[in-house]
Predict the structure.
Amino acid sequence: MIKNKFNTKKILSFIALLWIASGHFFPIRLSIGEKIVSINAFSEFYLIPIFGIWRIRNEKDPFQKKRLKWMLILFGIYWLILPVLLRKIPVIDGTSTTLTTAYHTIGSIAFFLFFIAVILFGKRADCGWNCTCVFTRETVGFAFRDKTKKGDFWWKLRHLKWILLLLVWAFLIYLILDPEAANATFKRPLYKLILDIYYGTLLLVPLIGHRNICRYACPWSATWAVLNKIGPYKIMADTSKCFNCGICERECDMGIPIQSLIYKENMIDTGECMGCERCVRKCPKDVLTIVDFRDKIPGFNMSYKQRGIRVILGLTFALLPFVLNNTISLYIGLVALYLFLSGLFGYSLFSKIFKNKMHNKKQSI
């Protein structure tokens, strides 16, 4: 019997990837009334939900199914709803930009809030759960996950992205020192280079896997990698339970040599981990455990989950005072600060008062 060489999922995936890349390299423009519209621009914004639903329906792993659902929810909140409500976000050079671009605009308020989130939660705050690049590659490009390259050679290639890291941070320093000159000379060519690489690597997904840009060419992945190393986020390992089955390394889309790392340091302490938790969840012996700031900063009267939600809400609400020019923005800023600090230290005065009232009420009954 001749095997069917055509994989429908991969064919559809490749067509979708081509369509997304064409919107950047070869925009198809139509004249509608008095407006010129590019019909293939930003096509990932409707392809992500389509392929995301397909991924959820076909995902067998309960945790990854849950993660995908959260990714689509976050996509809707941070990339579709909030950008409509919050039109312009300030940048440190005195300019402003739309929220969809502000998340990864060097020097924007949103960029610095992401910076804090990554320090506390690790790269998963962006690269694992809440980046359009991740959404695209975990949905549209996921059919080519089996093409992910592993091994020592491909692991060494991760250092390529440090070149872009240096360019981005040189631009940030220049932006602080001389914003007018920085914008006039380097802003446009730098972002064009980054976008060319981003859309160009979509075409390489069928050859080297869906997370190729995250591994080799993303300046934000490199920036967050530094924070992964210096922050509290780690994956701890109990090597006494490990029997070298190799499942963790086979599951890792970033090509991390997990087994050698855990035997050397008893943890996966690398900037490359993007927090998908596949290695943790697939390990048959529960060798691996995720650790973040909540394990380092002892909480008081709040649960692990409550702390995480409060920190995320606090960082999200912190955007509002920068875009609202009225007195209510001050109160929103104070609420954001309260949510963030209460989540950070795991203590809520109001929660304590509420619990005391409930306790007294039970005793009186």
Observations:
- The first strand starts at residue 29 and ends at 32.
- The chain has a mean pLDDT of 90.
